[in-house]
Amino acid sequence: MVSNRWPGASSACLVAVLVLTGCSGGDDEPRPTASATSASPTPTEDVQPRGEEGVTYDVLNWSDRSEDPLVLAYKTAGESLAASANRGKLLPSARARTTKDFQRTVSKVLRQAWAGRWSLSPEAKVRIESTKVDGSKGAVVACEWSASTSFRKPGGEFVVKSTGKGWNKMRSTYVRSGSTWRLDSLENVGTCPGGAPR
C-alpha cells in the first residue's frame, strides 16, 4: 500500500527503504589498547554514509541503529527513490531496492513529479522509531521531517500547500531475497511528536 497523498507525502514516502546487501554481525577482534608509547586511540565512531546519487537520508539516531540491516535498506532505498525523482528517471539503484509491485506504484507518482518538474531536498531528516523482522519480511517505522521530504515546485513552494513543520510517521515493509531487502510498500500512518531537527 502506498499513501494516497503521494504528491505531498515524503520522499521517503517515495522512498522508504531498502536493499541491504549483507551486513556482518559482530566484531570478534580484540580492540587495541593505549600504551605509554602509543598515541591516544582515535574513537571508532560509526560514520553514516552519504547518499551516492545526490540525496542523503540523514538518520538522526544513526549511532543507535547503524548495525540494523533494515535501517540501511530504508536509508538507501529512500536515497535512490528521491534521486530518481530529482533526475527524471527510475535509477537502477532504485530498481534494485524495490519490488516490481512497488515500482509499478511509485512510477505513477514519479511520472507526475517529472511532468511538474517537482524536486526533493538533497538531505532528508529522518528518525527511526522501530524495525521488525519476521522471516523474509521486515518493517520499518520512521519519522520524517516533512519540510525535508516533501515535493517542491520549481519555484520552491511545496506541492501540497498544507506541508508544514512537523514529523510524518511512515511505515514501510520489505521482502528479503537472499541478503537483499527490497521495499514492498509504504504508507503514512500519522505524525510523530517533537520539534525541528537540529
Can you describe this structure?
There is one protein chain. With 198 residues, the chain is an alpha+beta fold. Helices cover 25% and strands 25% of the residues. It has five helices and five strands. It has a five-stranded mixed β-sheet. A hairpin with a 2-residue loop joins strand 4 (167-177) and strand 5 (180-192). The chain is globular. Residues 1-41 have low confidence and may be disordered.
Note the topology.
Elements: E1 56-59, H1 62-65, H2 69-87, H3 92-96, H4 100-116, E2 123-134, E3 137-145, H5 146-149, E4 167-177, E5 180-192
Parallel strand pairs: 1-2
Antiparallel strand pairs: 2-3, 3-4, 4-5
Brief rundown of the structure:
The protein is an alpha+beta fold and about 200 residues long.
Q: Order of SSEs, N→C?
A: EHHHHEEHEE
The separation of the N and C termini measures 31 Å
Low-confidence segments: 1-41
Q: Percent of residues in beta strands?
A: 15-25%
β-strand number: 5
Question: Radius of gyration, Cα only, in angstroms?
Answer: 18 Å
| Cα shape | globular
Key attributes of the depicted protein:
alpha+beta; 5 helices; 198 residues; single chain; 25% helix
